[in-house]
User: Fold this.
Amino acid sequence: MDAALLPCDFAKFQAKCFDRLSRDGHAEFAGRLVNMRMVASPSAEIASYQAHKNPGSPPGVQWLRTLGQQYRQGTFKMIKLTVNGTAHQVDVVPEMPLLWVLRDELGITSPKYGCGVAQCGACTVQIDGMAVRSCQAYVGDVAGKSVVTLEGLPNKDQHPVLQAWIEHQVPQCGYCQTGQIMQAISLLGLIEKPTDEEINEVMSGNLCRCGTYPRIRAAIHTAAAKMAGK
Assistant:
């Protein structure tokens, strides 16, 4: 069964599409489809949606049929991966980004969708110990590897990075912070006592609209001191 390629279940796909439209709104859903390499761009996707919208049916049903015909040409595959120490098998297309597998298939919601093009860092997780943007990591490429998210950190309540984040009251809105934390943990795994310049360089790919960068930098210094003292 592991290597078997299965025909795409369009009913399952369509149900997920309607769920995304109702839960996230069309703009983010278009971004998801672009991210999954199913359409070329959000503007093209929205134009396609408007062109195929059928007023007499649930919103976008004809558009979803057209899109589904393209998607049906693909295949699902049983893919094995380990997430937070637990072995999983997921029945998805190998090109699906790891981010959507974590959130939609496994219910692990700490990685966030921010940009879909690996430019903001909100979706950062660890794959075999390295910080990776999960929105651009295909699940097929992660098969057999170990994925760790914030939920899977060992001794999470006592983790020095999380303690430092609390001490410095780093989060404001909090949306980017799980990605910031996972990137910071990877940084401290590589450099035990980073300088401000090293922190700025490594953390530069993790954006914070609230501008908490000074607090993040201070928290990383505090976490480094805590880890050195153990």
